[in-house]
Amino acid sequence: MPETKLHPLKAARTLVLGAALCAVVGLGCFLAGRAAADAGSQPPQVDAVVLQARLTEISQLAVVDYRYTTMAQFENASDFYGVRIPLTTKRFILTYDGEIKAGVDLERARVEVGENAVTVHLPEAEILSHEIDADSVEIFDEKSSIFNPFTVEDFAAFQAEQKDAMEQEALGSGLLREAQVKAYANIRLLLAAALPEGYTLTVRTGPFAD
């Protein structure tokens, strides 16, 4: 189906830093407590299960938002052996806002703890959600035909086609790479600062592996 974009795509990426501070404080307190309890007897220990839980809690750090406004046209007509039948054309022009969230699912991350070393294996970034703001939808130049009326299937298929097109455009802009880079950077920043002295941190995630 033909698609017309009548004004430039507006995209904004924002990093959600929600529960990060709480997660860092919680992790720091845990490790500090372990260190105090073990003082004078043995070096502080790091629990892989605890680190795994902390990664899950700060999963929003791995999310990048791609927001856009677009305009597209739907047109359909009945045909007979490839010849369009007169008075069967239906069409409309639609504008709407949408938001694509991409990131790393930290529930799938894997943590390994060795002697004075922690290794975090991150999965590849992916599209986590794609929502269209229903309140932003506007329809222009609507034309229907009694011989070819609009159906629920028309709108469902058109919406699915448009969402796929916008996801492809977002992917082409490097959305997943940005999400992967930010996940890598934030995990290193948060965990490296919280680990006891003498521990090394390695984060492995595709081309950004240490």
Helix content: 25-40%
What is the strand tally? 9
Shape: rod-shaped
Instruction: Write down the Rg.
Output: 25 Å
The average pLDDT is 74
Structural class assignment: alpha+beta
Tally of alpha and pi helices: 4
Quote the beta fraction: 25-35%
Q: How does this structure look, described?
A:
This protein is α+β, with helices and mostly antiparallel strands and 210 residues long. The chain is built from 4 helices and 9 strands; from the N terminus they run ααββββββββααβ. β2 (79-80) and β3 (83-84) form a beta hairpin. The strands form 3 sheets. Strands 1, 4, 7 and 8 form a 4-stranded antiparallel sheet that branches. It has a 3-stranded mixed sheet with strand order 5-6-9, with helices on one face. It starts with 19 loop residues before the first helix and ends in a 6-residue tail after the last strand. The longest helix is centred in the C-terminal third of the chain and has 21 residues, at 152-172. It is 33% helix and 28% strand. It is rod-shaped, with a radius of gyration of 25 Å. α1 (20-38) runs antiparallel to α2 (48-57) and α1 runs parallel beside α4 (175-194).
Describe the secondary structure blueprint for this structure.
Layout: H1 20-38, H2 48-57, E1 64-76, E2 79-80, E3 83-84, E4 90-103, E5 110-114, E6 117-121, E7 126-132, E8 138-143, H3 152-172, H4 175-194, E9 200-204
Parallel strand pairs: 6-9
Antiparallel strand pairs: 1-4, 2-3, 4-7, 4-8, 5-6
Helix pairs in contact: 1-2, 1-4
